[in-house]
Write a structure and sequence with these properties.
Rossmann fold; 32% helix; 16 strands; disordered C terminus; alpha/beta; eight-stranded mixed beta sheet; disordered N terminus
Length: 449
Amino acid sequence: MRRKTHLKAVAALSAVALVAACGGDAEEPTDTGAEETTTEDMAGDTATETDDAADTGAEGTGGDGEFRFGYILPETGTLAFLGPPQIEALNLAIADINAAGGVLGSEIPDPVGGDEGDQANVAQSSADRILGQGVSAIIGAAASGRSLDIIDRVTGAGVMQCSGSNTAPTFTDYDDNGLYIRTAPSDALQGPVLANAIIDDGWSNVAIVARADDYGRGLANATAEALENAGATVVLNETYDPNASQFDAPVQSIVSANPDAVVIIAFEEGVQIMQGLIEQGLTPAEVGMYGADGLRNPDLGTLLNESDPSVIAGFKGTAPASAENADFLAKLAEAAPDLGDNTQFAPQIYDCAVVVALAAEAAGSADANVFKEEVVNVTKDGTPCTSYQECKELLAQGEDIDYNGVSGPLDFTDAGEPGRATIEVYAFNDAGEFESLETVESNPAEDAR
């Protein structure tokens, strides 16, 4: 395996601060393959124009007194593997909330579900139908692009939206009237951890290819900046059309750049890019090969080569993680045994539901336009609590609370997103089996002191 001289580690994982979007709408990818990236935001499929909620006829709860969840999560499409753990986590959260007496004295009914799919019109149709059911909050979407397709509909209808997997910095400064929150950290926090993993492995000339969408551009740029701050050379930083029929262009761009490490920021189409690289002799055993949360699939080796999954051996990546919460994972496994090891973003979705329910309880209202004022407050600067029941009892006693979730401490910023992040570093061993290597805390506020 080729290695370069070990470089200095990325200084303070927070060196890349929470970056805001660089303006403008996300570009439509072309069918030409690779293109140069610009400094934009991250996570999910390319956004398309959305209609205002007022045009859909949908209205929020408007204080009708019943608290109810909806969800828009992937049941079909390339991210369908993320749907089951997120849906089951929401169901588990509702069960735990109801076991503690529900919200505002009533149990929460079953959530109104909808598919986000791979297309804007699928997610928007789901949003319109769910908004018509008088929900207080919608959980999802999973992909940032799909959330960008529906956010104006949801927040414009006076309904809270919480995603457990949107990582695009776009949302930090989005004009959402305080009605969009997320429990997943911005990729501005994940990028430096990914860069640090590459540097720690001794690589110094890195090629990056990424989806031509908010997720790809943003994480690519955050990673590239952190690599360059550490003294590494980014020999390639290009995007590709994720809807292309073949991916020869990004493969050839990587080969021509002659890197010693490759970063592939992709969803399932990344398998085709990896297959192309392996055909060119660039295997994870020959060069450093890295991915992120979009490729965190325990079955990645089988997808790559069904007869020889060990071809993935040596591949590494990063993803937002649960803070090693074995109790939660055991409880989820008991409630939904069919999930197996597929629990990605389940802790963050569980925390979405609990934070929103606690905010409604604290505000004494099922109307999102009222309880939005409490979503940040319940996550910081109060008496620590680690369950809905414990936090609810403290609220009943007149206490301010600090909900520390199953995904880790949230400590929301004013933008309604985590002020710190727990990032997992994962890898595939010699047999092609998935392994979680470690979790890393990234906290810009503390590191900057």
